[in-house]
Amino acid sequence: MRIKKIFLSLSLLATLFVPMAFAQAACTIREQRTATMAGVASMPACNAKLGETQSDNSNCPGIKTTIRYAIGENIQDVCCCEQESSETTISTVPKFEIPELQIDLPGLNLTQPQCTQGGNGEYTCKVNWLGEYLNWIYNYALKIAGILAAVMLMAGGLLWLISGGDAGKVGQAKEIIIGSITGLIILMSSYVLLVQVNPNLVKFPAITLGALSNQEVAELVKSKDSGGASNYMGAACATDEELKNGTAFFATGYCRPTWANTDKFFCSIAMNCSCPDGVGLDTSKNCDDIYKTLASQGKHYSPCKYFPKDTEYCNHTKSGSAPYDGSIAGPVNDCSNLKLGDQVCFNNKTYTITDSGGLIKGKRIDIWTEDCGGVATVTGTGILTKGECGSNPSAIFQSTLVTTGWSFDPGIINQVGDASAELGQLLNCMRAQLPNGIGKISSISDSNFIGNLYQCNVSNCLRPPCVHSCGSCHYGGGLATNKSYAVDFGDETNAAALTAAAKACDSGAYVLDEGNHLHVSISACPRQ
């Protein structure tokens, strides 16, 4: 009977594993509006910028399938779901050190974890060491139990042989034989029994470790490989007039990421900081799978060669100084009017150009951040002027639009939040130049798309519902900021005073009297 207890105890080892749950993609119910005359969608229901695509209605409980009617359009709910990241096996995985057991177990060979990389750039690794270890113990215990059962069977038979007809000894021998045979039956059928109770009891699933990639490196890759960065890199150098009045630049953040023995890390060092002293590029490899946007444009780069964890890296710039908060890499190799040591004002902060790079061209800069968590916050489009912040008249005013002193057409005050920092500075500066009673704002953005200006910030938007010209400065003028760089004044009878104030605050401001209103956009906006 003791043998059966041993077998039952061993079988319970398999209950150490449980199935793992996986999260489903988030889904949202949105309205699809279709023009009744043209029969086409007047605005996209699913937000492509959020990675949404239209999905089956079953993924959105409570969705209404009925069509609702409005003036000039039909409205129907659709189900929009975020796309799930597809995973592909990678050839170079994060390195794992196989644990060394204090007691050598013959026949136990722990394997390297299997890793995959999702569309978000993060690694997911399946580590099966515990399963392999317990599987070895389980199989070893079965062998030992089988040997013990066989020994007990022989012991029972021997006891019967030497019992000499003693009824007590014969009964004891029978009990031993029956117990050992019962134990062998349970032992041989244990697998089938466990499968019948719960199939998961005979499985040893691997432990899944998610997000193994360094998030710092992922942010660096995302900022460097963005389409916006590539577009501005191909732009012409800013003219002296643009640098004086302010012009749009694209900034990407860079930092000193935590060391990791991965291709992504060594690629990010080559692209962001340059390889450490004495460490060259590994030309036998490329970073195409990591910097896919650049690779699609025919720009191919190699990672740094391997260097150990204690190597100094990202510790100096082209100027020879250590990077610091407030230092940037600028297009000094291509643009003669920007040099190492120059100060520039970008998004209301003064920076010094201390570095350059092969990808820092046209209207692109890289901003050093001490904390890699701040890479995303400095990455994006902004207005750059040459010199310290405050050298332009409007730059001495705060960037948040102050409504005091202005009057607004009905409902227009709700558009104030769409004003860019540059437009806020211009209007605050103009307010200081204008007498009381002048300045009636009739438009900043578009009441139909407050907070969602990007829907009209394209060349082929639909009018209506977009009330201004497609891609106008009211929608961002082509800049990917979702902010307005223009204002309309409804008191066009004061056009002379408004124009003078706008030009005093921004000499390059675009001013147009359109009859029923005066349009003003900042000089840095590429459109009107």
Give the strand order of the largest sheet, numbering strands 1, 2, ... along the chain: 10-14-11-13-12-15
Principal-axes shape call: elongated
Assembly state of the chains shown: single chain
Q: Unreliable segments (pLDDT under 50, ≥5 consecutive)?
A: 1-25, 35-42, 84-92
Please report which band the strand proportion falls in: under 5%, 5-15%, 15-25%, 25-35%, 35-45% or over 45%: 15-25%
Percent helix, as a range, is 25-40%
Describe the fold and architecture.
The structure is a single chain. The chain has 11 helices and 20 strands. Helix 2 packs antiparallel against helix 3. It starts with a helix and ends in a 7-residue tail after the last strand. It is α+β, with helices and mostly antiparallel strands. Strands 10-14-11-13-12-15 form a 6-stranded mixed β-barrel. The longest helix is centred in the first third of the chain and has 33 residues, at 129-161.
Explain briefly what this protein structure is.
This protein has 11 helices and 20 strands.
List keywords for this structure.
six-stranded mixed β-barrel, five-stranded antiparallel beta sheet, alpha+beta, single chain, 528 residues, 11 helices, elongated, disordered N terminus
